[in-house]
Amino acid sequence: MAEEHIWPLYGLRVTTPRLELRLPDLAALAGLAAVAADGVHDEARMPFTVPWTDGGPEARARTTFQHVLGTVANWRPEEWMLSLAVRYGSGDGDGDGDGDGGRIVGRQDLGATDFAVTREAETGSWLGLAHQGRGIGTEMRAAVLHLAFAGLGARCVTSAAMTDNPASLAVSRKLGYAPDGLVTVAVRGEARTVRRLRLDRAAWEAHRTVPVEVRGLAPCRALFGV
């Protein structure tokens, strides 16, 4: 029996001209873990509120592997986290011809609590160091925003980034997010400032530039609580 017959989310596909986002099976999850092991950011700074990248390559790989499996095991319509592996060169287009066709490059998350009531979700993501600086981060966030707004009927989507993480903040600005306040968090024993961001449906519509296609959503809708 195919995985998607048991867990329909394995059949969900979100594609852009260069990317395909989907819940990874075990083989793809091993590939995603390998990308994490190779590095996600400069080790001198920590861009995440939860420092999951500490501990070296083997620890990063195991954390990634366990996280995605945990999202499946703990999924409830009232509280869910969709962790999608991002493949570069597997979308509807041909990629940019640089030899990266079909390569797993990072992870894009979409999560919510009581989504059926609030119609509010949040995003989070990471991209392997070797794949940064080519607009992939913007494209994969645009893909999951389309899933949230067009596919699931979200009213707004939130995100957050350290104030000293200009790359993440630039992606949010490009996609239409508005500032939503600051919060101080403890990371590695130090106080860090996080900027919250919010994107409503009107701003999403006004800033859409990436063509996105969603397939396989119908059998998943009950799992999202919609």
From TrEMBL:
SUPFAM superfamilies in alphabetical order: Acyl-CoA N-acyltransferases (Nat)
Top-level taxon: Bacteria
Ranges of residues in domain N-acetyltransferase: 18-177
Keywords assigned: Transferase
MF terms in GO: protein N-terminal-serine acetyltransferase activity; protein-N-terminal-alanine acetyltransferase activity
Entry keyword annotation includes Membrane: no
Keyword Transmembrane (UniProt): no
GO CC terms of this entry: cytoplasm
Protein name: GNAT family N-acetyltransferase
Native source species: Streptomyces carminius
Organism placement in taxonomy: Bacteria, Bacillati, Actinomycetota, Actinomycetes, Kitasatosporales
